[in-house]
Amino acid sequence: MDICSLAACIEENIKKEITHGDLEKAVGYSYHHIRAFFRGAAGVSLSRYILARKVANAAFEIRHFGKSITEISEEYGFSNVDTFAKAFKRVVGVLPSQFKKTEYLCGRRIICAGVFAPVILGHDSPIFTLQHLKEINEMGEMKKTNDSCVLYGVPKVSFGRGQDSPFPACLQSVLNYMGQNISYTEIMAYSGAAFRQRFDSAGWNVAAIDIRFTYENHLEAFERAFRGAGRKAVISEDPDMPKSVTKADAIALIKSELDCGRPVIALGVVGPPEACIVTGYRNNGETLLGWSLFQDFWGSCEVDECGYFVKTNWWEETEAIMSIGEEITNPTTDREVLANALMLMTTEEMPTYGGNEIFYGGQKAYEAWAEAVEDNYNEECQHDAERMLGQDRRYAADYMAQLSEKHPSLSREFKECAKLLKSAADCAPQMQKLREENKNITTLIHQAAKQEKAACAVLTDIVNKLYQAAGETWGLPNSQRKHDINLRSLIPAVNHTQGISPVNSEGNYRGKDTQKFWFDGGDLVVTSDYDMECLQTITGFSVPLRIDATVKTCSGDIRLYYLMGEILFNIHGDAEFHDHDIITGEWMAYHDKPPIPPDKFVNIVWIIEKEYMEVHINGELYHRRDNMPYHRILKKSPTVSKIIAPIRISAANQSTVTIKSLSVTKL
């Protein structure tokens, strides 16, 4: 008798009444024989084992879900909550209400060969698993087959629970299953999804809600979420580029992870190319099982007894596979998450599709949304925009409320920020009500924008104080008056041993050649095969400061940006100096300035104050500008207490820029 088939049958039907017929069908023996065999092999009665497995699964939901104990007891087939509480205490030693207050973690463990399911980690009772058994089959040995493995008990993801962003929902489910106590709210914040509002500059676009368009780099939301959770992850390929991974490679990755008890996240498999969870494979990987938010209304898959989708022809609909490591490293700090949140809510233009299209963000997204509602209403896109506002900002507010307890000295500011974000989120259900009454909603859109703008002002103060408390400014420790930039650290994607490496974050969506980096000795070389600017940004240096760079360029660009992406000025290798006035949006070109020698290293120094800026090349004053836009912006926006000047090194127009050294000195 195959005891693992028996264990798998129990996990598949854990929320149902497991009948004698179910067990007989699973292993092909009579119930009397099954019961006797199980007690003899496991040393515990079959009924007690089934009860323990129900309790373990219920404990997992108590620990990780927001359900009531009454609701959980009903789902697992107990006649009433008192019966459940007594059974729970008999197995675990404490009541369910007391278990909530313990430090026990719940995650997955191997139940027997090829079967993984939730357990209470650290609990000393062997009843939760069959690992103490020798591997047995009908003659006393049990072996896992090579063509299948299913992880049971992975939390379901679905629409309708208020957690409708597929990737954060899937990542929470996987990490909870792996034993990490992390919330959907936290993942929404780490990824940046809680703070996004995107609107295509060309008009309504159903893609605007896709988490990949949160940033210019379409992988960044995923990468930030993994870093925030302290996890290392591997993404098989860029889903926006043509497939470079074969089906055999994908199956090998999926099998290697599942065989170790780790679910994987895939983009696609069932429904649109959104995140889903792969929890098992059969037929040597030709068939996949798992959870998808779209499986209940996407008719291209079957459903397993445990509720998992079952998909055979999955490869054509899959864009990427993400595997998650066991080790938990240092997660992203609160101040880094909040600085990123501020960037997302104030950046008004985000290039996408390799720079070929612009998605609006921040206040500009709200303005475009209001105009589109007036001009050409789209029901589906309106619903998505409301979801980004209503659901996502509510989680942003929840995150701020959590931090108010974590940072008592800033509790008042966090609570104020949470209140403003919640007020913005509350505009979404009001919009739905007005739409049902065929009334105009633009006033509510503008109201939400106003509340969010006020929240950003409070958040700016919070971020500054957090960095000050840590002895840092945004990106530059106060202890380092001079910060020498490690050029290799700028481009983590570079393979230092093999040389040239494409930069995924700035690749072209249409499949054109990407820009490339390589190191020539100790120098960083930046090239561009087509007209596309911007390769790497070093963010977060507060004015006043001095920037020293030793560069060699031929028609390449070196630019300095204001705060959230506005170009302040641009030096061309063809001898032109372009000065940009942020307030008026005008460019001024200075053709009488001495040219930058082509293909020779020059030293460029920028002295940047709030009221003026100087540019020195090879020790000579090249340009000075008084009454800096910084100065006028500070006057115009008194809530802005600091000016941040990111540096962007770029190459454009089929050019090359070589950077020998780069440093920032706090003045």
List the helices and strands and how they pair.
Elements: H1 3-12, H2 20-27, H3 31-42, H4 46-64, H5 69-75, H6 81-92, H7 96-99, E1 105-112, E2 115-121, E3 149-151, H8 166-177, H9 184-191, E4 199-200, H10 220-228, E5 231-235, H11 247-258, E6 264-268, E7 275-282, E8 287-291, E9 302-303, E10 309-311, E11 318-328, H12 334-346, E12 349-352, E13 357-360, H13 362-375, H14 379-406, H15 411-436, H16 442-469, E14 472-473, E15 476-477, E16 482-484, H17 487-490, E17 501-502, E18 516-520, E19 523-527, E20 536-538, E21 545-554, E22 557-562, E23 566-572, E24 577-580, E25 587-590, E26 602-608, E27 612-617, E28 620-626, H18 629-636, E29 647-650, E30 656-666
Parallel strand pairs: 2-3
Antiparallel strand pairs: 1-2, 3-7, 4-13, 5-11, 6-7, 6-11, 7-8, 8-10, 9-10, 12-13, 14-15, 16-30, 17-18, 18-19, 19-30, 20-29, 21-26, 21-30, 22-23, 22-29, 23-24, 24-25, 26-27, 27-28
Describe the overall structure.
- This protein is α+β, with helices and mostly antiparallel strands and 667 residues long.
- The chain has 4 domains: 3-144, Arc Repressor Mutant, subunit A, CATH 1.10.10.60; 166-332, Cysteine proteinases (Cathepsin B, Chain A), CATH 3.90.70.10; 340-473; 483-666, Sandwich (Jelly Rolls).
- It contains 18 helices and 30 strands.
- The strands form 5 sheets. Strands 1, 2, 3, 5, 6, 7, 8, 9, 10 and 11 form a 10-stranded mixed sheet that branches.
- α1 packs across α2 (20-27).
- The longest helix has 28 residues, at 379-406.
- The radius of gyration is 28 Å and the shape is elongated.
- The model is unreliable at 134-144, 475-483, 488-517, 528-539, 561-567 and 636-641 (pLDDT under 50).
